[in-house]
Amino acid sequence: MAKRNKIALIGAGNIGGELAAIAARKQLGDVVLFDIPSKADFAKGKALDLMQNSAITGDDASITGTSDWADVAGADVMIITAGVPRKPGQSRDDLVGINLPIIRNVAENAKKHCPDAFTIVISNPLDVMVWAFQQWTGFDRKRVVGMAGVLDSARLQHFLAAEVGVSAKDVRAMVLGGHGDDMVAARGYCTINGVPVSQLIASERLDALEARTRGGGGEIVKLMGTSAYYAPATAAMAMAEAYLLDQKRLLAGAAYLDGQYGYKDMYLGVPVVIGGSGIERIVEIELSDAEKVALAKSAESVRGVVDVAKRLSAQQA
Ligand code: APR
Predict the structure, then answer these.
(1) Does residue 317 belong to any structural domain of this protein?
(2) What lines the ligand 1 site, CB under 6 Å?
(3) 237 and 130, same structural domain?
(4) pTM (2 decimals)?
(5) In-domain check, residue 233
(6) Helix, strand, or coil here: 149?
């Protein structure tokens, strides 16, 4: 009997709700919105609202809310937003002590209930949370990816499009490295329908737009009092769709590096190909000397937070 995919959303907050709405609209599968017991009714309420929304849009997927891992069992895709978002003035790294035990709890349950899921981690600090999740589950590294590069690239695409006065859909951008203040815009790969952006935008303006991209999440936190959720959800769902439909898309994603770009035993944002086997390839592109230096700085920041996470998890164990 034909069967719909099962998409488990771990965390039914702002991003979780938007993820569910997109999954339903795109008919990617049945959705289970999972949250902690004290938020079970909240998750159920969101699911009910979304099902009633589907009565208008005509989407058939089922959306349910739960705090019982048994309902998540057997998921094909799992997207993790469990944790707390930033408040104004906080960096993503400030969340490590709060979100690390949450990811540990999620990892223990995921291992038991969803051993075959393709997992996309969104919780921050992203590169460290996805690393910790993979370590604790022992899942195949090809099936554990972090969502940041698609979002950071989209932020830059928007700024580039607005600068030139063209549609953002004709703009491609590639933002690599850690999902933090040191992320790296690979300028040579940013184009407007194939035209290098350096032909259309002065270098000082590009510097400014890239700097705005690096602080792009913080800009929204300052305005809203919490972190972004529409673009993060759309970005993660593009990655889930690439897996479920075996699209073999080349996207920027946080992947486990085992020597690529000169880094080992860490997750970092790099170009990856996502298809039906998960991360099917890590693509090594040429970077300028300046970009290599910037990537090294970004990797060093990620390593610093990984070290904090290692210390914290030793204390918590
Ligand atoms: N298991 C499942 N869900 C959990 C757990 C847990 N152990 N702990 C917390 N949660 C839930 C919270 O109850 C909350 O409903 O995670 C949800 C997070 O939702 P929001 O607070 O609305 O946060 P959101 O904006 O969705 O961001 C989530 O993604 O981008 C990152 O920095 C952001 O780390 C944050 C995460």
Answers:
(1) no
(2) 10-16, 34-36, 39, 81-86, 95, 99, 102, 105-106, 122-124, 226-227, 229, 232
(3) no
(4) 0.97
(5) yes
(6) helix
Which residue type is seen at 241?
A: E
| Residue 33 forms part of a structural domain | yes
Distance 82 CA to ligand 1 centre (A): 4
pLDDT digits (tens, 9 = 90+) for 190-204: 999 999 999 999 999
Distance of CA 27 to the CA centre of its chain: 20
Q: Note the pLDDT tens digit of each residue in 254-293.
A: 999 999 999 999 999 999 999 999 999 999 999 999 999 9
Residue among 36, 44, 128 whose CB has most ligand 1 atoms within 8 A, to mutate: 36
DSSP letter for each residue of 294-308: HHHHHHHHHHHHHHH
Confidence class of residue 317 from pLDDT cuts 50, 70 and 90? low
Instruction: Examine residue 314 and state whether it is found in any structural domain, yes or no.
Output: no
Angle between helices 203-214 and 216-224 (to 10 degrees): 50
Euclidean distance between CA atoms 21 and 117, whole angstroms: 20
Tell whether 153 and 302 lie within a shared domain.
yes
> Domain containing 299: what range?
149-308
Q: Which residue minimizes the CA distance to atom 4 of ligand 1?
A: 82
CATH number at residue 220: 3.90.110.10
| Residue having the nearest C-alpha atom to atom 34 of ligand 1 | 123
Number of domains within the chain: 2
Instruction: Provide the percentage of residues in the chain whose pLDDT is more than 70.
Output: 99
Does 89 score more than 70 pLDDT?
Answer: yes
pLDDT on residue 132: 97
Q: What is the pLDDT of residues 2-15, one digit of tens each?
A: 889 999 999 999 99
129, 11: one domain: yes
Q: pLDDT by residue (tens digit) across 126-143?
A: 999 999 999 999 999 999
Final residue belonging to a domain, choices 96, 123, 146:
146
Annotated catalytic, 158? no
Quick count: other Cβ atoms within 10 Å of Cβ 191? 18
